[in-house]
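DM from R.C. (forwarded with permission)

"hey, sorry to bug you on a friday — could you get me a structure for this? deadline for the figure draft is monday and I only need the backbone to look sensible"
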Amino acid sequence: MSIKVNYLKKTISKFSSNLVLFCNDKFNISNLKKNLSNNEFNYINDLLKSSDLKKNLLVFEVNSKKKIVLISIKNNLRISDIENLGAEFYVRVNYGKNSEYFLNSDSVNGKYKNFLGHFLHGLKLKSYEFKKYKTKKDSRIITINVIGGKNAPSSFNQLKFKAIEEGTFYARDLVSEPGNILHPDEYAKRLASLRKDGLKINVYDQKKLKKLGMNALLGVGMGSIRGSYLVTMEWNGVKNNSKPVAFVGKGVTFDTGGYSLKPARFMEDMTYDMAGSAAVVGLMKSLALRKAKVNAVGVVGLVENMVSGVAQRPGDIVKSYSGKTIEVLNTDAEGRLVLADALTFTERKYKPKFIVDLATLTGAIIVCLGSEYAGLFSNDDKLSRQIIDAGEKVEEKLWRMPLHKNYDKLMNSKNADMQNINYVGGAGSTTAAQFLQRFILNKTPWAHLDIAGMAFSKYGGALNSGGATGFGVRLLNQLIEENYE
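My reply, with the result:
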């Protein structure tokens, strides 16, 4: 099923097709008479007397070919509430082989800035489905004709929302791909193709990574017949030499756990262990498409964690790009090894204003926060507040978790500078973040987002219908838009 939105930029008083109208929180329709026939107005007024007016949306079937949808604009709505209204509209009215709705923008109360843009944004985000490998295609089209001249989104805002949607959908597509299709070799090729959007792409293959000394990242991919890569994506939206903002993502395209093998049950879900990298990619694509006035860089480490005769063993010691040595006690704590090299590389090469990394890093964060909040760990209070505030606005929520030097003793190794897992027990997410912090060498403001509980949803959420969520794209776009453009 696909969504098509047309902006007709004219007022039409009566319609034979489905009609969408907005009203106040009491469902008062007295000011909507010009859009309805007398019979329709009287009919709906009578039905409203026995309707549940606490709802956000009411659908009235005037006849077999026409629905009238009334959407209540409540008081004190947040941006996320408006977007959720659009998602609810999609869920409630996407019936029929081909459905067409006329949405009267003039009926929108001008109290909320860009109400209709956020409404349609939520509708489109909710409509996403990954059906690429279904042999029977859903060819249905829902057409939304926006009419009226008062409150339709400007061309600028239409472009902005479209860019965010495309970036989010691209991230969801990447996460949804099976491991036999989106292995590191294919992933690197797809990222190279983003040059067409205006991004500067550099692909570091195994030969280059070995020369650089990225042995922590390379160690994770040793057991795979596929290559391992570090890919950088640069967007220069400001014509000066200002420091970029930087984003780093874990891209483990499939995670068996290596020799520390995962249980068979639910291992098929480990295709989404690259969701952190997908969020970074989707963000960079969005920034390029909307011509964001910021200098930004995205860095992703792409590996496949497999079992073979040459795979990394528990007890191996590797020397990271930073020069620090790591004892690999558990090969299923692989994401932090990939990020360790990527973080130091990003800090050294780009000297950014800040670094935010995203990773489906620990199951412990799901135990702690479930699927409602991502875990936030940071060395900088200002950056933390900015990220949390951005998350509240787009309803991609975060909860700040502790970092403290006392946790370091749990990651110290007798045989190397550190070990990659805490075998004492407890604080699994915090010790993982504490490990990562060791690879921020120059006190760059840094935040780590553990998105293990947020990247994929079995049951769907407000703005997704189940599966890959694209968590992080809209959050980080909001962070940049509010604070760094």
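R.C.: lifesaver. The chain has a mean pLDDT of 94.
me: no worries. The two ends are 35 Å apart (CA to CA).
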